[in-house]
Amino acid sequence: MKVKMSNLKEIKEEICEVGHRLWQLGFVAANDGNISVKVDEDRYLVTPTGTSKSFLKPNMIILINGKGEIIEREDERYRPSSELPMHMRCYEERDDIKAAVHAHPPVATAFAIAGIPLDSYTMPEAIIFLGSVPIAQYGTPSTQEVPDAVAACLPDHDTMLLENHGALTVGADLITAYYRMETLEHFAKLTYYARQLGGERELSQKQIADCLKLREKFQVPGRHPGYKKYARKG
Length: 234
Ligand SMILES: [Zn+2]
What we know:
The protein is α+β, with helices and mostly antiparallel strands. It has a single domain (5-114, 132-188), classed as 3-Layer(aba) Sandwich (L-fuculose-1-phosphate Aldolase).
């Protein structure tokens, strides 16, 4: 099914809105970060390289195919994000992924730099919407190392830290992927504060299992790493 031009315009506007929010929240500095959306089977909208997300406008968003080739762009000056292979790998690995957001939210990125995964189950929202957050192994930006490291986390995770770099979230739509980025940074802050206060306390196995039941009730799309360990029957 092909998405109509009018819908492409709406998706471009939504990408800009998300870019503006990422910048307002301090999740990206200068030209950091990139956003992509799978429009239909072989068409993707991606943000341009070398552009602040605060200045993002719909005419800067580029339409590409699955090979990363440009199908259409309103302004010839813009080229797709240098992290495009990381985004395309997400869509290759999982059919359910329709959007990906990459940013450097400072507290979550500090955990990524310190090499500390956000893998404790301490608060319901983070358990329900993120699960544990692993660290994808470091790769030199723009190389194949990054997509390979991300691919290793994708079977069980929609949210991950990128070692010594930043964070990546994916979702069944752009807003879901974006909210995961917000939830990640919030959870990273809370974990950091809790550790200043003597350390977080994890919920019990039963409490975690009950959170996972809520996740099912809310019909949260995507993958969750906790099911194998915590999900209970009945
Ligand atoms: Zn980055």
